[in-house]
Write a structure and sequence with these properties.
The chain is built from eight helices and two strands; from the N terminus they run H-H-H-H-H-H-H-E-E-H. With 292 residues, it is mainly alpha-helical. Strands 1-2 form a two-stranded antiparallel ribbon. It has one domain (2-266). The longest helix is centred in the last third of the chain and has 66 residues, at 226-291.
């Protein structure tokens, strides 16, 4: 009896400890999901200054809140963001069930928690596969969208401003290099080869009345912005994969503890019931002996 009591108390302590860590880490997924699906210009989620313009461009071409003509391109990112939000919410709910189940020793709550964690594990594996399989597609669509932005760039408008921010703050020019701007419709109408957006230059001219500058005698960024977009995607992929793997390990551990605690509590309660019956039978036998 004492052995079952000690084991149950130890499992309760370990379960509550793992649940605390699980509840602390689970909100990272909703935050990451909001970071993927929300407009970075809203300022709700801080980001590295060097990657903020990259994220803005990626949002503008991949976000589910983009215009209808880019809506089909955002499917992977929309599913990924929704998956992160769902995993975070379900993980928090499972953690609360594990906490109250261990705290109150409710076997039904522990069983529901274990089932929820197993389902959550399947969701995490599916999300991880989706992310790894669609990473290349997202990168290709982002590059293609930036290429189209370069073709129609005229120097004013929201998307042109995003592209200027990307080139200036990320210190890049064009998609693969400055030569991409030779394909711009406005540059082709002028039939010139030394005209670039001022954001491509390493030193922005003061009091410029136009978004275009001559690259003659000015030093422009040589690196293309495709590398910056690739770095942004890689940063987010590594972060999500790390969170996903860590969460899966926590899920397996917590589900194992929940099931073992449920089994231990059942054995302990059965032993208590058996001991109580034996005590009642012994008292009944002692009472009969006294009567005789």
């Amino acid at each position: 009896m004492a052995r079952e009591e000690v084991k149950a108390d130890l499992l309760k302590f370990l379960s509550l400890l793992v649940t605390f860590v699980f509840l602390v880490s689970s909100p990272s997924f909703p935050r990451r999901g909001r970071r993927v699906t929300s407009d970075p210009r809203a300022g709700a989620e801080p980001s590295s200054p060097s990657f903020l313009p990259v994220r803005r461009v990626a949002y503008s071409v991949l976000s589910p809140l983009s215009r209808a003509r880019t809506r089909s391109e955002s499917e992977e990112l929309r599913v990924l963001g929704a998956g992160l939000l769902f995993i975070g919410a379900l993980g928090t709910a499972s953690g609360l069930l594990a906490f109250f189940g261990a705290r109150w020793e409710k076997r039904i709550l522990l069983l529901i928690c274990a089932c929820g964690l197993l389902f959550l594990l399947v969701c995490c594996i599916s999300l991880l596969l989706l992310l790894l399989l669609s990473k290349g597609q997202i990168e290709e669509k982002a590059d293609a969208a930036v290429g189209r932005m370069i073709l129609v760039y005229i120097g004013h408008g929201r998307r042109d401003g995003l592209l200027d921010d990307l080139q200036h703050q990320a210190e890049c020019c064009g998609l693969t290099g400055r030569s991409d701007w030779l394909r711009n419709a406005f540059v082709q109408t002028l039939n010139v080869t030394d005209l670039l957006p001022c954001s491509c230059l390493r030193t922005l001219p003061r009091d410029s009345e136009t978004a275009w500058c001559s690259s003659d005698g000015e030093v422009a960024h040589e690196q293309g912005c495709a590398e910056r977009l690739s770095s942004w995607l890689h940063e987010n992929t590594v972060t999500v994969v790390g969170l996903d793997v860590g969460l899966m390990v926590a899920q397996v551990l917590q589900a194992t503890l929940a099931l073992e605690l449920r089994r231990t509590i059942g054995r302990r309660d059965a032993r208590r019931a058996a001991d109580k019956r034996e005590e009642q039978e012994r008292r009944g036998a002692d009472a009969g002996s006294d009567a005789d």
